From TrEMBL, chain A:
Bias-annotated ranges (Low complexity): 71-84
Protein name as it appears in the record: Immediate early response 5
Any Pfam family hit: IER
InterPro entries to which the protein is assigned, alphabetical: IER (IPR008653)
Biased composition annotated in UniProt, kind: Gly residues: 216-225
Span list, region Disordered: 71-114, 202-259, 275-307
Similarity comment: family membership: Belongs to the IER family.
Record-annotated membrane-spanning stretches: none
TrEMBL record, chain B:
High-level lineage: Eukaryota, Metazoa, Chordata, Craniata, Vertebrata
Organism annotation: Rhinolophus ferrumequinum (Greater horseshoe bat)
GO molecular function: protein phosphatase regulator activity
Keyword tags: Repeat, WD repeat
Encoding gene (name): PPP2R2C
Protein name: Serine/threonine-protein phosphatase 2A 55 kDa regulatory subunit B
InterPro entries membership: PP2A_PR55 (IPR000009), PP2A_PR55_CS (IPR018067), WD40/YVTN_repeat-like_dom_sf (IPR015943), WD40_repeat_dom_sf (IPR036322), WD40_rpt (IPR001680)
Family that this chain belongs to: Belongs to the phosphatase 2A regulatory subunit B family.
Length: 323, 430
């Protein structure tokens, strides 16, 4: 039980870090986020393999939710990651949880501009808490709004559109809105024709879906900058953080997101990083520098300093304190 | 001197090849070079102190509009070029761009122009009745720094290391996933020699954390990974060095396994010994010496602050576990040094196997003061001056240290302060 709590705590912290990394100056640090994702994965494995009775954890709305029992849950190998076939059915409490209303109000004006990937790990986090069922389909659900947003920059109305879709989608086993495929910018607008669930042999419906999807769906179209996440733990942050990488990367994203793998975090960071996704040719990888910007012009003359007069400082023989 | 938002936090420290110059880079993109004063009879007490020689702005913050990314101006690394003429040259790099700077001295100026007067204004030609040859007259020393090359657009990811080759013509720069080889005179192209980016970023499991050329063999270089392994590569074996010549890896101790095992095994720095026979690596809790001839395990492992092993979760929470400490050899490769928390730094004598913990603080830096060894007490018997683990200040971290190439002079960067100690190493060991 202790391990489970500890693991849960570590998961929360990790997700918070991934989330915060988006706003750090200098862009996302690939190394740090890779390490955080490894910790996340370890914690999740421990969490899922610890055969304790389900914990009651209060959600942000104050609704106590029962976590699914996970006996005999096949431990996800490192390669398999999070997108495993769904576990046994989850208590209905999940289904009735409504997505947070405040999320729909968040503008996503910045979404198209911000090339930084956000916190896809949050999905992973949700998956941890809510069992794995949502992980797979929930990931895929993300693709709808994500791709829609990728196609057209800025779909401010999308955020609010998503929610109605999400609520309705509760009953559908893969969470796709029953007929909402054509809604622009909404959940269902996934270019992939077939039901995403078909790809995964998920037998059971993901009843966790609605709450997750609420988080997920909202996340799909929201802009990261406007995330209020007022009372929520990092786990509950809206999936609008799941940022849309540059269009070149979106295509690559599609299949990667499918498995709901923790490594998806990397793919999002990676593609956001590389931007243009230059694929190196097989032979000599001589990279021409001048592709987009010419070599930087030599900067104007720098500061020339006279030898500064520090001689009035105490000449410490053992230490000099500069700056 | 406080800075705006910590822009004067030192981010790299490097002696030049003779030890005469010491360069520091900071978070604000500035480089400050110190020069050692020659010892003289006039100032018997200042045995070759370091004074500020030059200060310049190396990098400015930039914005990549395509990716909506701000590029930090923080200087990640400085490497000196071997001196080939009167001028000094160094490479400085931030996350994306490497620059070659030339530092020259001017201590003479021409006087006695025919057409210009003292202020440089054109003379009235009618007043010129004879011609004179301008002569060079001494002037106050002026240090001039100019950017000679800018190596831009070579890296998609964040540059973590640069290393000048012993051939003095090429250098390499490494980011999280790739290593590029540059010629010092050519800025518009570079050769990619290592690329560990997987075809599917989802499969990414490790990144490059540091890299360095061998000090003598211009074809060899090493790079370390976040998984704790070192790869020695031979550029003569293949144009692309994705396949290593040697892989140095120590099997993980299963009894020490925790959530954070992977993080603490990530190598934050790798340095060849001066002899070229050994490599020194730093991970979160240890420094290790590797023999190039033995790949299976390090030949020596030193615990830097093992008392933190039980605190990894808190250190993860406050991000300290991601701190990247550097390590350094002394000139004879007999002592290794690395930083720790609470402004402590550690030295390990490889021969005597003794180690010492010292503190870089203003109190300990009075003139001619001898540094007092410190001790961290992790429970058990506590001596009077011991510091308990729980009272360590984790905001005071010594990430960057440098050792003079020949003498026992060390430069310690403690946040925004630089300490230079002329340490009598042998007498300080426990």
């Amino acid at each position: 039980m202790e391990f489970k709590l500890e693991a849960h705590r570590i998961v929360s912290i990790s997700l918070g870090k991934i989330y915060n990394s988006r706003v750090q100056r200098g862009g996302i640090k690939l190394h740090k986020n890779l390490l955080v994702s490894l910790v996340l994965r370890s914690a999740r494995q421990v969490y899922l393999s610890d055969p304790c009775p389900g914990l009651y954890l209060a959600g942000p709305s104050g609704t106590p939710m029962a976590l699914p029992q996970l006996p005999g849950e096949p431990a996800a190998g490192p390669a398999a990651g999070w997108g495993e076939p769904a576990p046994p059915a989850v208590p209905a409490a999940w289904q009735e949880t409504q997505p947070h209303p405040e999320r729909s109000a968040v503008p996503d004006a910045q979404r198209a501009v911000d090339a930084e990937p956000a916190a896809p790990g949050i999905d992973a986090g949700d998956a941890v808490l809510g069992g794995q069922a949502a992980a797979g389909p929930a990931w895929r659900l993300m693709e709808g709004p994500r791709e829609a947003a990728a196609g057209g920059p800025g779909n401010p109305a999308g955020a609010s559109e998503v929610f109605p879709e999400v609520a309705r989608a509760a009953s559908h086993h893969c969470g796709r809105p029953p007929g909402g495929e054509d809604q622009p910018g909404a959940l269902g607008a996934t270019p992939r024709g077939d039901c995403c669930c078909a790809k995964e042999e998920a037998p059971a419906p993901p009843p966790i879906g609605p709450r997750k999807r609420g988080a997920a769906g909202a996340g799909g179209v929201g802009g990261p900058a406007g995330c209020p996440a007022p009372s929520s733990t990092p786990l509950k942050k809206p999936r609008r953080d799941l940022e849309e990488p540059s269009s070149g990367a979106a295509a690559e994203e599609e299949e990667e997101m499918e498995t709901g793998n923790v490594a998806n975090l990397i793919s999002i960071f990676g593609s956001s990083f590389s931007g243009l996704l230059r694929k190196s040719p097989g032979g000599g990888r001589e990279e021409a520098d001048g592709e987009e910007n010419g070599p930087e012009a030599a900067e104007p003359g720098q500061i020339c300093c006279d030898k500064p007069v520090l001689r009035d400082m105490n000449p410490w023989s053992t230490a000099i304190v500069a700056f | 001197v406080g800075g705006r938002g910590g822009t004067d936090i030192i981010s790299t420290v490097e002696f030049n090849h003779t030890g005469e110059l010491l360069a520091t880079g900071d978070k604000g993109g500035r480089v400050v070079i110190f020069q050692r004063e020659p010892e003289s009879k006039n100032t018997p007490h200042s045995q070759g102190e370091y004074d500020v020689y030059s200060t310049f702005q190396s990098h400015e913050p930039e914005f990549d509009y395509l990716k909506s990314l701000e590029i930090e101006e923080k200087i990640n690394k400085i490497k000196w070029l071997p001196q080939q003429n009167a001028a000094h040259s160094l490479l400085s790099t931030n996350d994306k761009t490497i620059k070659l700077w030339k530092i020259t001295e001017r201590d003479k100026r021409p006087e006695g122009y025919n057409l210009k007067d003292e202020e440089g204004k054109l003379k009235d030609l009618s007043t010129v009745t004879s011609l004179q040859v301008p002569v060079l007259k001494p002037m106050d020393l002026m240090v001039e720094v100019s950017p000679r090359r800018v190596f831009a657009n070579g890296h998609t990811y964040h540059i973590n290391s640069i290393s000048v080759n012993s051939d003095c013509e090429t250098y390499m720069s490494a980011d999280d996933l790739r290593i590029n080889l540059w010629h010092l005179a050519i800025t518009d192209r570079s050769f990619n020699i290592v690329d560990i980016k997987p075809a599917n970023m989802e499969d990414l499991t490790e990144v490059i954390t540091a890299s360095e050329f061998h000090p003598h063999h211009c074809n060899l270089f090493v790079y370390s990974s976040s998984k704790g392994s070192l790869r020695l590569c031979d550029m003569r074996a293949a144009a692309l060095c994705d396949k290593h010549s040697k892989l140095f890896e120590e099997p993980e101790d299963p009894s020490n396994r925790s959530f954070f095992s992977e993080i603490i095994s990530s190598v934050s720095d790798v340095k060849f010994s001066h002899s070229g026979r050994y490599m020194l690596t730093r991970d979160y809790l240890t420094v290790k010496v590797w023999d190039l001839n033995m790949e299976a395990r390090p030949i020596e492992t030193y615990q830097v602050h093992d008392y933190l092993r039980s605190k990894l979760c808190s250190l993860y929470e406050n991000d300290c576990i991601f701190d990247k400490f550097e390590c350094a050899w002394n000139g004879s490769d007999s002592v290794i040094m690395t930083g720790a928390y609470n402004n402590f730094f550690r030295m390990f004598d490889r021969n005597t196997k003794r180690d010492v913990t010292l503190e870089a603080s203003r109190e300990s830096s009075k003139p001619r003061a001898v540094l007092k060894p410190r001790r961290v007490c992790a429970g058990g018997k506590r001596r009077r001056d011991d510091i308990s683990v729980d009272s360590l200040d984790f905001t005071k971290k010594i990430l960057h240290t440098a050792w003079h190439p020949a003498e026992n002079i060390i430069a310690i960067a403690a946040t925004n302060n630089l300490y230079i100690f002329q340490d009598k190493v042998s007498s300080e060991m426990h």
